[in-house]
């Protein structure tokens, strides 16, 4: 693949974007535009294709963390990796702004996407909560516990304290399954009921418990498990 400057204008990502709009570019072209250059013996289009393949596409790349990007040849340095991490953080903040501006459950897919961006690609289990105001708008997302999640490793008292600190009226519980499945276990169901009862004592509602994995998410409320 020749360098970008040696390509015909319509094949250059930047010129193509400016002439025809970003929607005209493929995922590979958009990523190549961001990366700008490849490595020795490996053009930027090839590099972009390899990065997308490594993360199973653009959605997977958006879930990637800095440590995962660092393992890819050509992204071990700081500049390109920092730019990709900045794009990821912009995506997270854009979704967060949507959730803060309107009722969370007016856009359940946005909630799932937001949680996937934050949790889905983590190599370890993470338990988090979305704290909501009386209008069900997002106040904050907090990661509360890490490791194997059971009733003994997630402390209801800590969740209640965080809800009170945020003056939350409701919460959406969330955790990831690094194994890739989003089916809730009996332990997940038991934990949900324990937290629901604890939060009810301080008049905080549990609206949902979302389980995420790369490329998928499950709402326990939608499954009738709350």
How do you describe this structure in short?
The chain is 44% helix and 16% strand.
The shape is elongated
What structural category arises from helix and sheet content? alpha+beta
The end-to-end distance, rounded to whole angstroms, is 54 Å
Rg of Cα set: 20 Å
The largest beta-sheet arranges its strands as 2-1-3-4-5
Q: Mean pLDDT score, rounded?
A: 82
How many domains? The number is 2
The quaternary structure here is single chain
String of helices and strands = HHHHHHHEEHEHEE
- The appropriate CATH architecture of the largest domain is 3-Layer(aba) Sandwich
Return the CATH topology of the largest domain. Answer: Cytidine Deaminase, domain 2
Task: Describe this entry's structure for a reader.
The chain has 226 residues and is of the alpha+beta class. It folds into 2 domains: 4-91; 105-219, Cytidine Deaminase, domain 2, CATH 3.40.140. It is 44% helix and 16% strand. The protein has helices spanning 13-20, 27-35, 44-54, 58-63, 66-70, 79-101, 108-120, 156-165, 186-200, and strands at 126-132, 138-146, 170-176, 205-213, 216-219. A hairpin with a 5-residue loop joins strand 1 (126-132) and strand 2. Helix 2 packs across helix 3 (44-54), helix 6 (79-101) packs antiparallel against helix 7 and helix 8 (156-165) packs across helix 9. The protein is elongated and about 60 Å long. The mean pLDDT is 82.
In terms of topology, how is this protein built?
Elements: H1 13-20, H2 27-35, H3 44-54, H4 58-63, H5 66-70, H6 79-101, H7 108-120, E1 126-132, E2 138-146, H8 156-165, E3 170-176, H9 186-200, E4 205-213, E5 216-219
Parallel strand pairs: 3-4
Antiparallel strand pairs: 1-2, 1-3, 4-5
Helix pairs in contact: 2-3, 6-7, 8-9
